[in-house]
Amino acid sequence: MPDFVTVKMQGLEQLEVDLNELSSDMRRRVVRQGLRDASRPVVKAAKGFAKPRDFQSKRRMAGTMRRAISTFNSKKYKGANGVIGVFITVRASRAQIKRRPISGDPFYWRFVEAGHRIVPRTSLAAARLSRLQKRLKGITITQRRRRATGRVQAYPFLGPAFRAQGDAARRAFVDVVTKRIQQANAKR
């Protein structure tokens, strides 16, 4: 599972010239807005590809993961050295996380996206031991991981969404940035 995807567009020389005519603050806002608008088709596709949880459990609401897919501004790439970034991920707000008794925290999205191993809480041999023997024995998490009982297959949704809607996102970026540059020039 890639941590991020970098897109480099070529053939936009006129757009780059027009962007360089803007002030640095305005350029950063125009490009960030273009990136956020361009991410909308990818977010919509990711919500469509995400495996739904059709039922509500004692601690999770149905559809938690789908609702939490969104676009966020990058804290690392915020305009320094001309690099601006946004990212699409699954993240809940603090209010959703703190909601009780049913949480809106989709922490498990990484397990769905990348798959995972099923690790037993204790081994069968350790389950038969008395309490004192268990304390003395001390089975570590590393030992439990070695005894994994199975694997849950990955069900990726972010990568396929980008591959499916990448061209639409690029076109949307160019359209939005061109429109915003024209608006900025009209205000002068």
Report the sheet-strand fraction: 5-15%
Helix content estimate: 40-55%
Order of helices and strands: HHHHEEHHEHHHEH
Structural class: alpha+beta
Give the count of structural domains. 2
Count the beta strands: 4
Largest sheet: 2 strands, antiparallel
How confident is the prediction overall: mean pLDDT?
A: 78
Question: Would you mind describing this structure in some detail?
Answer:
- There is one protein chain.
- This protein is α+β, with helices and mostly antiparallel strands.
- It folds into 2 domains: 13-115 and 153-182, no CATH class; 116-152, no CATH class.
- The protein is built from 10 helices and 4 strands.
- It has helices spanning 13-20, 24-38, 40-49, 64-67, 94-98, 109-114, 124-128, 131-137, 141-146, 158-187; strands spanning 69-78, 84-90, 116-118, 150-152.
- It has a two-stranded antiparallel ribbon with strand order 1-2. It has a two-stranded antiparallel sheet with strand order 3-4.
- Strand 1 and strand 2 form a beta hairpin.
- The longest helix is centred in the last third of the chain and has 30 residues, at 158-187.
- It is elongated.
- The model has no long low-confidence stretch (mean pLDDT 78).
